[in-house]
Amino acid sequence: MRHPLIMPVILLMFVTGGSQVVVGPRSPTRSSAVAITVIPAPGSPRARPDRHVRVMVAKGTLTSVDVSAGGARVPGRFDRARRAWRSTWTLTPGTEYVVSASASPARHGDPPSRVVTRFRTRAAPHAFGIRQAIPSPGETVGVGMPIILTFTGPVRDRAAVERALAVQLGSLGSSDSPGSRLEGAWRWMADDQVVYRPRTLWPARRRVVVTAHLAGVRAAPRTFGTADHILSFSVGRRQTSIVNTVTHQMLVHRDGRLVQRMAISAGKGSTREYTTTSGVHLTMDKGDPVRMVSPGRKKGEPGYYDLMIDHAVRISNSGEYVHALDNVWAQGKVNVSHGCVNARPDQAAWFYDSSLRGDPVIVTGTDRRLEWWNGWGFWQLSWDEWRKGSALRDPSALALPLATKWVYRGF
């Protein structure tokens, strides 16, 4: 007859908020196995998706932890002592997870332990995700380009959403996952929109991957992200333009070399409306042609115009463009426009063809400053000012003025 104390046994213990599973033979003199705790509890049919998987041992060392969901591996990391493991991101709603973990004991001679558990997360009552992302997937942009994410609904927990957003740099032409990070910060523009800007301009000719780890993130009461979102785009050559409204010249530099000198005419400055804004603009979009209509004026009133303008590159939301116009008599000599920067048709066509969204256009010489919230004037803020809009730094500083309505101020 076998003695009951030397028979192999498996002891399964459930504890509040998690599980402990010990695998190994019992000893008549001491506990011989290390207990592994898994949270959420095994078999849970409605685990909270806005939490993390955690695996822990009170004594001993975790030797391996594998967590999968729908056949895909769930990333996570150990603490320094390898007594705890935590998933990197929150969990996908309505999904089954499998956790497999092993641990070695603290005392020499004790057997190792292993646990395999399953649980399922509860479904999201209301789904949350990204409605629009700028830049477009695969787009090549200029070195000043912001990342703009617009969500499907208002975000109440901005910090939780912001923590789920990751921006990484890679090399063009490489299939490897990007691993280097660039210092940057998100700033909330509205309840449903957040914008990322690096501290300095993007390095040229690099690949950027934005991963919104929104699965399981609780954005608002009963509202959870249901999937992650990945956006990949490229930064092209470094092109910057300097418009001097005093000398009536525009200089275009590419990768540190002057590639174009353009005589221009800027806003005539007779009113604030007709004054070109000084500051760091970004090219936003372009059209050939673009219809420009005088704002606030009806046909027949003084100052009314309704024109089709060629090779127009927009640089703000207050109607400013760099565009073609056949008023060569003024270009290089005097400012006569309604606020736009106009150039000789052939040079304007060159600038149109060579521009990417996000190219910096720096205007100097006027007494009207570009507002940082006008179009993509984000580089108007200092780095410290920009970071104040992050929910992870100073939530009290998120109040913004109303964005300028996009109007055509014309030529």
Write the layout of secondary structure elements.
Elements (H helix, E strand, L loop, with lengths): L9 E6 L2 E6 L12 E4 L14 E4 L3 E9 L2 E2 L2 E3 L5 E4 L8 E9 L8 E8 L5 E3 L1 E5 L5 E2 L5 E5 L6 H6 L1 E7 L12 E7 L2 E6 L7 E7 L5 E3 L2 E3 L3 E7 L3 E6 L4 E6 L2 E9 L13 E4 L2 E3 L2 E4 L12 E4 L2 E3 L6 E4 L16 E3 L1 H10 L5 E5 L18 H5 L24
CATH H-level superfamily title of the largest domain: L,D-transpeptidase catalytic domain-like
Number of distinct beta strands = 32
Strand order of the largest sheet: 25-32-22-23-24-31-30-29-26
Number of domains: 3
What is the CATH level 1 assignment of the largest domain? Mainly Beta
The coarse overall form would be: elongated
Q: How would you characterize the largest beta sheet? A: 9 strands, mixed
CATH architecture of the largest domain: Beta Barrel
Low-confidence stretches: 1-32, 394-411
Find the CATH topology of the largest domain: L,D-transpeptidase catalytic domain-like
GO biological process, one term: cell wall organization
Pfam families: Big_10 (PF17964), YkuD (PF03734)
GO molecular function: acyltransferase activity; peptidoglycan L,D-transpeptidase activity
Organism: Sphaerisporangium album
Q: What is this structure, in a nutshell?
A:
The protein is mainly beta. The chain is built from 3 helices and 32 strands. A hairpin with an 8-residue loop joins strand 9 and strand 10.
